[in-house]
Amino acid sequence: MMLHLSIPIAQIDNTLFFYQKLLGCKATKIADDRIDFDFFDNHLVAQRSPEEAAHESVYIGTLPNRYPLRHFGVIVQQSTYAAILERLISHQAHFAMPPQKIFVGTPREQNVFLVFDPSGNAIEIKGIDNLQAVFSHQ
User: Fold this and answer.
1) Domain containing 79 — which CATH number?
2) Can you spell out the DSSP letters for 36-82?
3) What is residue 88's three-state secondary structure?
4) Distances (CA, A) of 11 to 36, 45, 59
5) Cα–Cα distance between 37 and 29 in angstroms, integer?
6) Going by DSSP bridges, is the β-strand pair 122-127/110-116 parallel, antiparallel, or unpaired?
7) How many domains does the chain have?
8) Distance CA 102, CA 47 (A)
9) % helix, strand, coil for the chain, step of 5
10) How many angstroms separate the Cα of 46 from the Cα of each of 1, 2, 61, 92?
11) What is the DSSP letter of 17?
């Protein structure tokens, strides 16, 4: 099974850099109006549509700022999470939610952050060693 997702982007070049170099996703097709990515074994299509914009719309928990309700992401091993986070910080990425640990002391304990791509799409990255624990009821 594979998830397919299409997102709007403003520019090809900065999107290619962000997803390929910072997130580590392979570009499988590059055209004037779109890029197809292998987004952690899922099919992500980034299509040029500058007029479409991501937005911040809800408050979550104790976070002081509004949170992008419309977002997508991936759940990865802690080592992958740390490597992605290091690349994003070194390139001064714009975080919607700074890196933090949530569900501390439960099977779902995980590191998480939310980052904006160059077009304003919000991407949530979660780091948890037992990936199935994300479904725990605790």
Assistant:
1) 3.10.180.10
2) EEE-SSSEEEEEE-TT------B--TT-SS-B-SSEEEEEE-HHHHH
3) helix
4) 14, 13, 29
5) 7
6) antiparallel
7) 1
8) 33
9) 20, 35, 40
10) 20, 16, 30, 22
11) I
Per DSSP, the three-state class of 86 is helix
The strand pairing partners of 95, in sequence order, are 115
| Tens-place pLDDT, residues 22-35 | 999 999 999 999 99
CB 80 within 8 A of CB 41: no
Collect all residues with Cβ–Cβ distance below 8 Å to 1 and sequence separation of at least 6. Answer: none
pLDDT digits 0-9 by tens, 65-120: 666 778 899 999 999 999 999 999 999 999 988 999 999 999 999 999 999 999 98
Residues with Cβ within 8 Å of 29's Cβ and at least 6 positions away in sequence, in order, are 35, 36
Domain ranges, residue 89: 4-135
Of 43, 122, 6, 51, residue with least CA distance to 112: 122
**With bands split at pLDDT 50, 70 and 90, how would you rate the model's confidence at 136?**
confident
